[in-house]
Amino acid sequence: RTPCFLARYLHESGFHLTEGMLLAEWSPDGKRRELIDVEEHVAVPAALFVIPDDYTVLHTSK
How far apart are CA 22 and CA 24, in angstroms? Predict the structure, then answer.
C-alpha cells in the first residue's frame, strides 16, 4: 500500500467529498472515473441502503 492509498482510503476517506460530488477523478496509476449521466427521481430498493449485520466499522483518531 502506498502513502496515497493510505491517505485516500484510510486516514481521510471522506476528504475528497467535502466540497461536493466529484465529476471526474484520476488515480496516480492513470485510471480515470467520470460521472457522465445522472437520473433524478428514480425509485430504488430500500435494501440498497441496508448495512449488513456483520459489517465492521473502524474509527481512527486524528
Answer: 6
